[in-house]
Amino acid sequence: MPASAKPTDKPTACLALADGTVFYGKGFGATGETVAELVFNTAMTGYQEIMTDPSYAGQVVTFTFPHIGNVGVTPEDDETATPVAAGMVVKWDPTEPSNWRATGELTQWLTSKGRIGIGGIDTRRLTRAIRQQGAPHVALAHDPEGNFDLAALVAKARAWRGLVGLDLAKDVSCTQSYRWNEKTWAWPEGYTERSGDGYRVVAIDYGAKRNILRCLASVGCDVTVLPATATAEDVMALNPEGVFLSNGPGDPAATGAYAVPMIQGVLARDVPLFGICLGHQMLALALGAKTVKMNHGHHGANHPVKALGTGKVEITSMNHGFTVDSQTLPKGVRETHVSLFDGSNCGIAVEGKPVFSVQYHPEASPGPQDSFYLFEQFAEAIRARRTV
Ligand SMILES: NC(=O)CC[C@H](N)C(=O)O
User: Is 280 a known active-site residue?
Assistant: First the structure.
């Protein structure tokens, strides 16, 4: 049946943009309403990892890839225990799962996790609108009876304060420290979890994806995870050989109040430091640079990035709506990577120190694995200190 023939005669969900545009569709997952920023993700795989990536807190995700739901869901693919994205928008009704790994079906999973989905949407049109007007504020509603107060939904989208100035990392962070340990993980070929004599690494959890912690373990790190609000003293009390700053949601500048003093304290102790995404932005802020909101951000699994040191191009996974303003990088801080889409900053390093970070996602969950070398670079920096 061609897409246009799909009957959506009785809309059971609607997506209202702050500019008054309304998209009608078929609801799935939880019922109710949610208000958030709307972003599009262009990845062709990994909808479950995307929905459970804590960096998507406060955002509804529209998927440009049309076949969503086709591989079902499995707990192994959760990046955190519950979906963190506020809701999902898809072109079609999620299809029946067809995958030996599937333990469940997307729509039921979404219901059980209390998240709203809307299907039957012209996601191409919606994505063009996002590109033109910037990531809009939206209200997403699902009602099986199809009763919607459109004026009220548009008013809620308009009234929403937005992500600028919003610190969400502390909301999705762990509240207690813990040791990363996942015996059930099937390691990629060539990598095994090493423990016992591993490198003592403290990971600060601003909303860490599990696959980042797995990747750190796979290069020999014994990872202790600390809450986002940990102080430099909390970190140094564990006598770390390396400190990792995780990804996370919200506005980096708003997260700086507690993260920046901690990072500056660790920098003063000369410990190898590695950051990813929000962790990259937090390191940049701690070094004195500034971050800015992007128009519609970068969310996908095929973003080309140039490594300026080697001239090599990496195809990367990205998910960010803020960026480090490379014009504000202080002396002694080098830009190491740039986006080949728009030239925005994608990596920094402190001259002469094992301190570096990237805006993109070398853990590739979902996405390409070109940038895994960054985890090895971090482990190598720790190893070099041991042998000195
Ligand atoms: N994935 C992330 O860590 C996102 C960082 C930040 N919240 C942004 O949107 O830019």
Answer: no
- Listed by start position, the domains of the chain span 3-159, 169-387
ipTM metric = 0.97
What is residue 221's predicted lDDT score, i.e. its pLDDT?
92
Q: Is 363 in the active site? A: yes
**Residue 137, pLDDT score:** 98
Catalytic hit among 14, 215, 221, 277: 277
Phi-psi region of 226 (alpha: psi -120 to 50; beta: other; left: phi over 0): beta
Would you state the pLDDT for residue 77?
93
Q: Is 248 known as a binding-site position?
A: yes
Q: Which of 40, 170, 281, 357 to mutate to test the pocket of ligand 1 (most atoms within 8 A of CB)?
A: 281
Low-confidence ranges of the chain (pLDDT < 50): 1-7, 184-188, 191, 196
CATH topology of domain 169-387: Rossmann fold (3.40.50)
**Residue 369: exposure state from Cβ atoms within 10 A (0-12, 13-18, ≥19):** middle
**In this structure, which CATH number among 3.50.30.20, 3.90.230.10, 3.40.50.410, 3.40.50.12160 belongs to the domain 3-159?**
3.50.30.20
281 belongs to an annotated ligand binding site? yes
Q: Is 299 a catalytic residue?
A: no
CA torsion through residues 225, 231, 237, 239, sign: positive
Altogether, the residues listed in the chain come to a count of 388
List Cβ neighbours of 70 (8 Å cut-off, separation of 6 or more).
94, 95, 96, 97, 98, 99
